[in-house]
Structure formats: C-alpha cells, structure tokens
Design goal:
about 450 residues; Dihydrodipicolinate Reductase, domain 2; alpha/beta; single chain; 2 domains; about 30% helix; Rossmann fold
Length: about 450
C-alpha cells in the first residue's frame, strides 16, 4: 500500500463520523460498511490464531483486509495464512513475533486472541503503536491490568472493542433480556443467577517434550518460566487437535498462571450481561462470598502447592452483593445462562433461548419497537466486528468498551481471589480495592517475568 492510500484511509476513518454513520452503513458483500473503495478498507492483523483467533478473523473478512498474522505455533500460523489467502485472495505476511506487526505503519487495527496472560501487554503496546484494538475476553489476568488498559485508551485515544460478542450477537436474545428488565416486565430485580458450568480436574500431567512447531518460551511470555506439560490423549471437538491435558493450548484456561478458569471464561460473558441489565456497568459489588467450592489441588496462602495439575476451581457457588440490594449468584450448577428474578416475575436467557412468563406475555404486550435499539444505543450491528468497524469510523468507543468490561470482570477476578484464599472479600467499588485485607489486595496485580514487562 502506498503512503498516499494509507493517509487517505486514515483520514476516512477519522473523519467519516461527520457524515453520520447511518447514512453510510449500506451492506456490501465485498466492502466494509462505509468503505467505498478498496483503498478505504481498513487493514487488520490478528495476533493469536487458534480457535477464537480464526473465529474473529473470518468474521472480519467482509469488513477488512488482513495484511499480517502472528502466532508462536508455526503449524497454526501456516494453516491460518493459507485459509486467509483462500478467503481474501491475497496472502498475508506471517510472523512469530507480534512486535513485527506493531512496527508496521500500514496496519490500522489488531485483533488479539492470545491466551489471557498476554492480552494486556500486547494491547497496550498496540495502542501506543497507533493501532485500534479488538481483544478477546477475558480482557485481563488481574484487576490492575484493567486499570492500565483504561489509562492507555485515554492516553492514546484508540478505539478498543472487547470480544464479549453476546452484546451484539446470539440472535439479540441478551439485548431482549435487558430490554425486558428496563421496561419493568419483572418489576424490581431482586436476584440474578449466572450459570457458567464447572470443569473437571486433571490427572497429574507430566513434563513432556515441547512440540517442534511451538515456541514455548514466547508462549509463556509474561508468565513464570515452567516446563511444558502434556499427556498423549488428544482433545476432540471444539479446540481439538491438541493434548486434552496440558498447560498450554486449549487447556490454558484451567490454570491461574494464564487465565481464571470458568469464572473468567463463561463468567466474562454472563456476568457482563447481568451487570449491564442491572445498570451496574460503572460500579461494583460490596462483597464477594465463596459459599461453597472445590479446588482441584491444595492451596497455601492463595497459591497452589503443586504445579502438575489444573488449579482453577472445578465447582462453585459464589454470592455477590450488588448495588440496590440485588443478590448475584455465580454457579457451576444448572443450565448455562442467566436467570433474572424480580418482584413481578422471572425469565431465563442463554445463547439458544429466552424463556419464561414475561417472554410469553410479549405476544399480547410487546416491547416498544425501538426497545432493542434503545438498549444497544442505536441500530444493532451485523456482528461484533461490524460494531468495531463502525466505532473506528466514528472514533467513539464500541458496544463492549474496556470500562464496562473491567467493572464486571472485577467480580470474576474477586471470585477467584476469594476461593483461592478461602474467605469473603469486601470491595470498595469507588477505590477499586479490597477493604481491610492486605493479602487479598496483593492478588490485584502480578509481576511479569523479566523481559516481558508491560511497557506503559
């Protein structure tokens, strides 16, 4: 791409808001909404390509051109380069080191789908390199990382979308749920239950040879230096083709060193919708109580004493005291989804259904025609990537912004801290710190490994 074309596209992205987005969002099979010529299409790159990395990339071909891809697994990188070339008829550049992408001036935005422990460092560096960012959930590994990202967004004025796509997609069921609540169809909300499933413990996972195609040092990055571990049995289905039990690949979610178990996996989806519905997207709980739970290994002072098995909670019931006396329960029991209970009724919603008497009553007493758009803040985008593109054009933050995401994710992080320490934690949502518990407050941040510090 020539410098002239690049400058033209930049000016288009930054100036199109003046024309009004509604006037330019005409569907096209070959162009991003609002981009009238090939040179106007934004240029993207994806960092981290397995599973969700490819999912968000392939949803974006309609709107953007991908100039580069990065992954520390050579096989995954090669496979995604091939698939991308087939889809867009142009081969993207391939890198093991994501910093090569950030050095490029022709790339407008990056999509980040690495394991969670890498998110904050890459996202902050990308913003300071002048890139807009789409980052998969959960956004951070710790609460203090969220504050660092917020500061970077303010400083750089970049557009930042978090990949909690239930806000845009899933047949608008979650938007309908919020509209039902905002229009008083269950009265005053008294309780919300987020069912997010548990997980199985692992057997002892031995040290194993690092796969030839994997740069294990780079995969670990900010996390502590440890041996690669895996058992021979392979995972099938979604995320398949990798060891079922390992401290890498799909299983990273089950280790506190890299993620937060189900609390930050499914919790990042359902707790987000619950907080949005409660109007609690800019505040937080007063306390988080681990009612009952199971950790798969022994803990001492909040840290696992063994390092050869999954260490995130397998089962849990966590009570969260929300503003206005609302009780939130986060549970591994029952159906995956959200149950809202109020003074006048209750209903249940997940990605496949929204059911309950208030939903049935919509046949006789429908919501106002603009109820969904009122919740969303305008016409609902085609998908979550489309909303990101629209935000890039308007230079306004998208539907899943970092502030609302971090507020709800604090509940998920606090739940894990409470279980790791085996006690209730009290939270000050104004100061964003744990009250009267120095040991618990130490878990709000973590020290990155030397050479992989977060540069702010």
């Amino acid at each position: 791409m020539t410098r002239t074309h690049h400058t033209s596209r930049r000016r288009f992205l930054q100036g199109v808001a003046a024309a009004g987005t509604a006037a330019i969002l005409a569907p096209s099979a070959n162009r991003a909404h609002g981009f009238q010529a090939a040179n106007d299409r934004p240029v993207f790159a994806t960092i981290g390509l397995r599973n969700q990395g490819w999912a968000i990339t392939q949803k974006s071909f309609r709107f953007a051109d991908f100039a580069a891809l990065a992954d520390v697994d050579a096989n995954v990188l090669a496979d995604n380069v091939k698939k991308t070339e087939e889809r867009q008829k142009k081969k993207p550049d391939a890198y093991k080191d994501y910093r090569r992408i950030l050095d490029r001036k022709d790339i407008d935005a990056v999509m980040i789908a690495t394991p969670d422990h890498w998110h904050t460092k890459i996202a902050i560096e990308a913003m300071h390199a002048g890139k807009d960012v789409y980052c998969e959930k959960p956004l951070t590994l710790t609460i203090d990382e969220g504050k660092l990202i917020e500061a970077a967004v303010k400083e750089t004025k970049r557009v930042f979308q978090v990949g909690t796509m239930q806000r845009t997609e899933s047949g608008q069921r979650f938007l309908q749920a919020i509209a039902l609540i905002k229009h008083g169809r269950i009265g005053t909300v008294e309780k919300v239950t987020c069912g997010i499933n548990g997980m199985s413990a692992s057997p002892v996972i031995p040290v194993a040879p690092v796969p030839e195609e994997l740069d294990w040092e780079m995969w670990l990055g900010p996390a502590p230096k440890v041996d690669y571990r895996a058992l021979p049995e392979m995972r099938t289905g979604y995320g398949g083709g990798v060891p079922l039990y390992s401290n890498c690949h799909y299983a990273f979610r089950n280790w506190h060193e890299y993620s937060g178990g189900k609390l930050t996996d499914w919790g990042a989806h359902h707790v987000d919708i619950a907080c949005w519905a409660l109007g609690a997207s800019d505040t937080g709980p007063s306390k988080v109580t681990p009612l009952d739970y199971s950790l798969p290994v022994e803990y001492k002072d909040g840290h696992p004493v063994v390092h050869d098995q999954y260490n995130a909670a397998t089962k849990f019931n966590i009570g969260v005291a929300m503003p206005n006396g609302v009780e939130m329960l986060i549970t591994s029991e029952g159906d995956n989804g959200i149950l809202f209970e109020g003074t006048k009724g209750r209903f249940f919603v997940n990605r496949g259904k929204i059911v309950g008497k208030p939903v049935e009553q919509l046949k006789e007493n429908p919501l106002p025609d603009d109820a969904i758009e009122e919740v969303y803040g305008g016409k609902v985008s085609e998908n979550h990537t489309a909303n990101f593109i629209e935000a890039m054009m308007s230079r306004k933050q998208p539907i899943s912004d970092v502030w609302s995401h971090n507020r709800m994710l604090e509940i998920c992080h606090l739940s894990n801290i409470a279980m790791r320490l085996g006690r209730e934690v009290k939270w000050d949502p104004a100061k964003r710190e744990i009250v009267g518990d120095e040991q618990a407050n130490a878990f709000l941040s973590r020290e990155n490994r030397q050479g992989y510090e977060i540069n702010v």
